[in-house]
Design goal:
single chain; alpha+beta; Arc Repressor Mutant, subunit A; three-stranded antiparallel beta sheet; two-stranded parallel ribbon; 6 helices; 39% helix
Length: 157
């Protein structure tokens, strides 16, 4: 019977403790090797929470597959802009000013995981996250940037 464990771990810093240890330990798998594999696959996401799925494909032979997801947009923006957190009151405080290129980079990292089908619509989604985090883009409110992109004044390619 195939068993699946889904969790969030800090990139490159998974341990045999909770949540992985208690979930995988009873299955008799080599926990040390699984943790090593997860840390290797998530090392590019240091300091970010990363979705991880461990699927035990054959409990008898103890074979497994590890699938690494993409961190949330908030985490990618925080890493890209080198900030610790978003604004607690976005209308009163701006925590960072991003460039359109930085927004495009995050949208490209999230492609395939977003509802959007084009880079332009991905950028619009990331700009929506900027609104809630208190991040301006090139000195403008993210909603203004969204309007300029939708009107064609700013081209995203």
């Amino acid at each position: 019977m195939v068993q699946t464990v889904k969790t969030m771990v800090e990139g490159g810093k998974a341990t045999t403790g909770p949540p992985l240890g208690p979930a995988l330990g009873p299955l008799g798998l080599n926990l040390g090797q699984i943790i090593k594999d997860i840390n290797e696959k998530t090392k590019d996401f240091l300091g970010m929470q990363v979705p991880v799925t461990v699927t035990v494909t054959d409990p008898v032979s103890k074979s497994y597959e590890i699938t690494i997801g993409i961190p949330p947009t908030v985490a990618l923006l925080k890493k890209e802009l080198k900030i610790e957190k978003g604004a607690s009151k976005r209308k009163e405080k701006t925590v960072a000013d991003a460039t359109l290129d930085q927004i495009k980079k995050v949208a490209k990292q999230k492609s395939g995981m977003m509802l959007s089908e084009t880079l332009e619509s991905g950028v619009l989604e990331v700009l929506g996250t900027c609104v809630s985090m208190g991040i301006t883009v090139e000195g403008k409110d993210p909603r203004e940037m969204q309007r300029l992109i939708k009107s064609g004044s700013i081209k995203v390619s």
